[in-house]
Amino acid sequence: MKTKIQEIQNNSITKLTKKCFQMAVILLLSFTSIQAQDKKAKDLLNEVTAKIKSYDNIVIDFKYSLNNAKENINQDSKGNVTMKGNQYVLNFMGVTKIFDGQKTYTIVPEDEEVTVSKVNEKDDAAITPSKMLTFFNSGYKYNMDIVQNVKGRKIQYIKLAPTSAKDQRKEILLGIDVQTKHIYNLIETGKNGTKTTLTVNSFKTNQPLSKNQFTFVASKYPKYYINKLD
Q1: 2, 72 contact by CB (below 8 A)
Q2: What is the pLDDT of residues 1-45, one digit of tens each?
């Protein structure tokens, strides 16, 4: 029987992938279709969007923290993600996920296994480019929140609150570096008391990428079992 901590750890990679893409959504999404609840928040998000759209690719090193005081759970992990358009490579908790725009390849060295799956547009939990471009179009209220000084950096937070009572997230706080207009962190608080924080340690842009950066090359894994789900 799985313990509570095992269940949470098993969901960490999926949650982290969603958070990375939530971050990408906020970076790339045009907010012109959203009814403004806070003009200053909207203007700042638009500035971030305009800045990020000028980049060919983004490479982020991050820290991921999961905390639940009630369950006495404190988990910290590091990882990195490379994004270009709707493609990405995520390295987290010893697992590599490659999305080439059509299929996701989950590479688990510990098991010597690669799981290949197509993106199902009808799956509400699936991470798809189309969903990522419409994620914040509806269902959220957003407002300017607190300002913090982090090692000399002015971080302005924007609070996003789900409007649906069925949403298990209480709120999302997005921290933006006022000077660079880059995302500093993303804090998600659940109704069950679980708080997950994605903090950007390094934010690089327009990096020289391999032509096979987002391509799964089977020859690199000759002894791995290829599990094709579709």
Answers
A1: no
A2: 455 555 555 566 666 666 666 666 565 544 444 444 578 887 887
- Both tokens of 186, joined, read 């993303």
- Per-residue confidence (pLDDT) for residue 45, from 0 to 100: 77
- The model's pLDDT over 59-89, given as tens digits with 9 standing for 90+, comes to 989 999 999 888 888 899 999 989 888 888 9
What residues are paired with 92 via a beta bridge? 79, 95
> Cα-flanking dihedrals φ and ψ of residue 140, to 5°?
-135, 145
In our burial notation (b when 16+ CB lie closer than 10 A, e otherwise), range 16-29 reads bbbbbbbbbbbbbb
User: What distance lies between CA 58 and its chain's CA centroid?
Assistant: 13
Which helix (H) or strand (E) covers residue 83, if one does?
Answer: strand 73-84
| Long-range interactions of 126-133: CB distance < 8 A, separation 24+ | 127/17, 127/18, 127/21, 127/99, 129/85, 129/86, 129/101, 132/21, 132/24, 132/25, 132/28, 132/86, 133/25, 133/28, 133/29
* pTM of the entire predicted model: 0.76
Tens of pLDDT along 135-160?
Answer: 444 567 888 999 999 999 999 998 98
Burial of 221 (0-12, 13-18, 19+ CB in 10 A): middle
Angle at 143 between CA 131 and CA 53, to 5 degrees: 45
